[in-house]
Amino acid sequence: MNLLSTHELSKHFDGLQAVRNVSMDVPAGQVRALIGPNGAGKTTLVSMISGRIAPSSGQVFFDAANVTALPAHARIRRGMAYTFQITSVFERLPAGENVALAARRHLKGAAVIEATHEALERVGLQSLIDTEAGDLAYGHQRLLEIAMGLVQRPRLLILDEPTQGLTDAEITGFKKLVRDLAGKTTILLIEHNMNVVMETADQVTVLNFGEVLAEGSPEEIRAETSVQAAYLGTG
Amino acid sequence: MSAKAKIIALHGGLLVLLFALQFVLPAYHHGNLARIMVLASYAIGYNILFGYTGLLSLGHALFFAAGMYGMGLGIQHLGLSVAPALLAGIAAGAVVSAALALLALRTVGVAFMIVTLMFAQAGYLTVLYFGEYTRGDEGFVIQQAQRMLWGIDLSDATNRYFAALILFATCLAVSLWLVRHPFGKTLVAIRENEERVRMLGYDIFVHKLVAMIVSGTLSAAAGAAYGLLFGYAGASFASVQYSIFPLLWVLLGGAGTILGPFIGTLFMFYLIDLSSGLTSAYMLIAGVVLVLLTLFAPQGLVGELRNRIWRWLP
Amino acid sequence: MELGPYLILASLEGAVTAAVLALTAVGLSLVFGVMRVVNIAHGEFFMLGAVIAWWIAHSMGGHPALGFAVALVVAPLVVGAIAVAADMTILKRLDYDPERTIVATIGLLYIIQQLTLMTYGPEARPVEAPFNTRLAIPWFENGENGWQMIWPWGLGTTSYKLAVIGAAMTVLLGVWVLMKRTRIGLVMRATQTDREMALAFGIPVERIYALVFGLGAALAALAAVLIVPIQQAHYLMGGDPLLLSFIVVIIGGLGSLPGTVLAAILIGLSDGIISVFFSPTLAKILATLLVGLVLVFKPGGLTGSSGK
Q1: How close is the nearest chain B Cα to the Cα of A81, in Å?
Q2: Do chains A and C touch (3 or more CB pairs under 8 A)?
Q3: Interface touch A93/B188, C-beta < 8 Å
């Protein structure tokens, strides 16, 4: 059973083809890594999946329903969660309120507080709950983004370069977090850190120049020479 | 004391103070304070959209006037009694703000400001155009006999003060309740980072729409009360100047604070009152204050207070 | 008077309105285009031009043409200088933030208007035109003796009104040459296209902004000097030009100079003709609604490209 499918998804900006005919299927519970060099169209692809930008052509299916025409907030309500590549927290609000905002969409009252504490604890930020998000260190802001994704209890969690700017210890914590979620939550993970990809992903899709270059298990991808040429060689 | 207790103590204290003041104030200031409380209710309405949602409207006079004329024309031409006339004014404000919101919320930033400005100007001109009913710039007086609510004469100074206090307390309570409610917190989040809120699954348009209707309805309630308590409706209350005033009061007092609208209205009212004794060009003060605020204190008085001392202020 | 001659008269009056409006609106458009600043005080710069013109003409004495000629040069310069000062002391400090500059220019509007009220007073005062020969316009009528040329009473214009149209066209041509054919124009356009890039190339963006703001205000002042012999100077006269300029700039496409001029001609001419059929208040209601609706549904302007 596929939770997410894209069908011939394309996007061009003023003649520049950012994503070209991408079709992929992500089964429920899978951790799917999306890799590729800078400018390969990864963020554009997940932006179309989450509804932040409209595709030029093609369709998105979520939970067997065609959601291509739905606005972003309606897709999120159906169980997607999106964390931003460029940290986009509410800088002037406390970390706890950032997470609570994400929680309140589906929870009420005391359950919000409980879920907020739990999500912050999972990313190791519980002690910073009252700190304004803008005052957090960059790595902590990244973790806060992840907590805002987690607390929504999404069926599909889209993480756009979550480990960028994290310390080694934090990355270790992140890998553990993903492994805990695996099987229950479907994860679409854009990641540059190959170490993280190898240890967490069930399946990897490689994008290059907006097209799917290869797809397979982490081991298969590592062995693929075209991928090495396009990506690993440069990355 | 917990933050909640402090908030209740502060705002309740203000209301008690306002209640007590009427027994000691001389007649002139007594009348002024009644006026200030009604105008501050208008500012509270404005603040919900500007301060808490981050939408800068230049057209709130349209809502204030919708309330004032909905009430005034109802009494004058339809022979309504006070209570239904007040409701008519408030309903007019709700309808007009919903209609403007449906149009203006398709735009953002500067375009939103200009669109609200233009529609409010069209509203002002409409009041002039139907001068036969509205008496245009000259306006019309609502007679003492028409200002009886449940046997209470609203033109009497004490009754008027009470009525103004009740309106103000209601608006204060509504805004306090709203900003502590999840809906209000989402509005603040929209002000801070709209795209992020959208990607948390909230419908931005619906939130802004509701914010604008609440804001417009409170403004209309203030407009209706103003016309009723002071017995007059005139086109100047629909003019650009009355769209600028709430912006000025809220900026001065502190946008996005509960007490800011009242503090700003109080200060500005007396500033203009004092200077109009000296010169007919009293709007000069408004201009100078606007420029100085944008330059040096964009947070306003209460905003600065919150930043420096009382961080728990809502 | 019959409709035909009446429409000619209305178009002539409309052409004068259009000429003055084009100058004022191009000033507003320039400021918005290059600086992204919506200058609500623009109408007050217009008013200042008229008031300063009265003041110069009044204190010079002698032949009216002398005072007028001096006003034509001095008023725009003085108003331009005031605008530059406002830019450097206020707008620059706000870092040209679009919303805060609007609030600041609203403040500026009241400051200028009320200071004028305090010094110049609430009266409307006329300025004498430098020359004012009446020119009658003939009309052809098919009467008892076949087609004949008649001179209907009231159908005519003055040499001064024609001169206003000519002067406005000359100045607009001048602005066009300035923008398209000079180095300073090139620098302005570069700043308009990409502020960051302009900064990176060492263009003194802040000085360009001050210059543009001054130039925009000077154009409004010049328009006012031209119109003041026809209209009289008054401290509240800035409201209408502001509204009309807004209409023109928004309909012409924000920041586009040719679009602005075209829209000014359209609005100016139709203003004269519409007022034949509608009351001025109704015409203004329709105009403000039009601007609002254009911004909502066609933010690129009626002549401009679509999209936000």
Answers
A1: 7
A2: no
A3: yes
The answer to whether C63 contacts chain B (CB < 8 Å) is no
Of B1, B4, B38, which is closest to residue B18 (Cα–Cα)? Answer: B38
The 8-class DSSP code of residue B79 comes to -
Residue B272 CA to its chain's centroid (Å): 18
Residue B67 near residue B221, CB atoms below 8 Å = yes
Query: What tokens were used for B135?
Result: 């008496």
Choose the mutation target among A47, A70, A85, A90 for the interface with B, i.e. most B CBs under 10 Å: A90
Q: At what angle do helices A138-150 and A168-181 cross, to 10 degrees?
A: 10
Are A90 and B200 inside 8 Å of each other by CB?
Answer: no
Q: Do residues A136 and A61 lie in contact, with contact meaning Cβ atoms separated by under 8 Å?
A: no
Subunit contact B202:A92, Cβ cutoff 8 A: no
Alpha-carbon gap, residue B252 to C97, rounded angstroms: 19
Which of left, alpha, beta for B109 (phi over 0: left; psi -120 to 50: alpha)? left
Q: Is B251 on the interface with A (CB under 8 A)?
A: no
pLDDT tens track, chain B, 314 positions:
677 888 888 888 888 888 888 888 887 888 889 999 999 999 999 999 998 999 989 899 999 999 999 998 888 888 888 889 999 999 999 999 999 999 999 888 778 888 898 999 899 999 988 878 888 788 788 887 777 778 777 778 888 898 999 999 999 999 999 988 889 999 999 998 888 899 898 999 999 999 999 999 999 999 999 998 898 888 889 888 899 889 888 988 888 888 889 998 998 888 888 887 777 777 888 788 888 888 887 777 787 778 777 777 77
Check if the interface score ipTM surpasses 0.90.
Answer: no
DSSP state of B232: E
DSSP string, A45-89: HHHHHHTSS--SEEEEEETTEE-TTS-HHHHHHTTEEEE-SS---
Q: What is the DSSP string of C23-34?
A: HHHHHHHHHHHH
Structure-token match 């209301």, residue found: B15
Q: Distance of CA B24 to CAs A159, A201, B17, B19, B230, Å?
A: 63, 75, 11, 10, 21
Tokens of C36: 């992204």
CATH topology for the A2-79+154-232 domain = Rossmann fold (3.40.50)
- Closest among C118, C103, C112, C116 to C83, alpha carbons compared: C112
Nearest CB neighbour to B247, from listed C103, C246, C297: C103
